[in-house]
Amino acid sequence: xxxxxxxxxxxxxxxxxxxxxxxxxxxxxxxxxxxxxxxxxxxxxxxxxxxxxxxxxxxxxxxxxxxxxxxxxxxxxxxxxxxxxxxxxxxxxxxxxxxxxxxxxxxxxxxxxxxxxxxxxxxxxxxxxxxxxxxxxxxxxxxxxxxxxxxxxxxxxxxxxxxxxxxxxxxxxxxxx
Length: 177
Prior knowledge:
single chain; about 45% helix
């Protein structure tokens, strides 16, 4: 009978080392894919907030375009739940924006319109109603869907990470009678 050479278990040790390396590589790739997923969610939320703010600007411009008189501007903006401001505003102050209403439930945007400048077309002195162009500064603050949930749940820490807020401004010129 032949005697088999004595085995020292090298195959088992090599297999265990390879299995450990594969486990570490799998864990690292899983962690990387989770990070990529969180980054893409952040970009998606930021893009959504930007698109909502852009929509807010266009909504306010549409209201200003449909108005034919200066008095009608105020009336139409109020009906559309667009805020009208006369004084100076700190647009980066969250407490200011928290006092404003959202445009509606579908658009998580808050819109503020200011009468910015009036430039008269006429140099006639003493004219009753000089014609001119009224410039409006429109500011829209768009948020992602997670931000509304963040506000509704009492600023819970779980939603703090998912907040995306975008503030956009435009200047709109209109001639009213």
